[in-house]
Amino acid sequence: MNRLIVSTNTLKVLWLALTLTLIFPNWAGSSPPVSRIPHLIIPILGTSLNEKFRPVGRVSQVVIDVYERQDRNGLQIQFHTEPGQFSLFARQSIHSAITRALAAANLPADSWTVLLRFPYSGQTIYGESLSAMVGLSVVSMMKGDHLIAGRALTGTITERGHIGAVGGLQLKILAAYHNHFQRVLVPSEYDVRDGDWRTPFLMHVSPVSTIDEAYFGLTGHHLVNLP
Questions:
Q1: Residue 136: CATH number of its domain
Q2: What are the angstrom distances between the C-alpha of 17 and each of 4, 13, 14, 23?
Q3: What total number of domains does the chain contain?
């Protein structure tokens, strides 16, 4: 009788252990799965011409979707042509920024597809100053690091992993200010064509040099996770 009781209790313990194992996988010695962000709308700082054909700052948005494929045929970056479009130069600079940012973050991306959309009917986005913001946003989506609200970055990503200079900073900063942004990250490398400019009241303008500095400013996390 005692043997039967022990055997029954043992079966109950084994069944409970198996159930817990199925519900809570053993992550000892390995990192828990990353909660990625598949869809994101990011702010873009740019310039345009007003009705008097004078340059003005502008805040627009770019929609990003990422998904993982079953194959490993390499990173795929695709640009929607509706409702708005990306110019050839914008597509090239974005492609470079995404690949450089992913490489700097040590993120394998050979099975990922990135889809980008400019949600403004009949409009085209030009230039390269959006590329760093797009590239680091893709990294944040794959890592699961949320962007801090009220912050934006303008600049490029260079081959050496720095944030490259762009023009029109004064106009972009003013546009961000009028759209209630709290902080704008700008390249520490100064474009002499911009001349002198002032920071609006209560607006934080943070010069950044490296990709990691820019990523930390956007997310509060480092580009590469520390051990």
A1: 3.30.230.10
A2: 20, 6, 5, 10
A3: 1
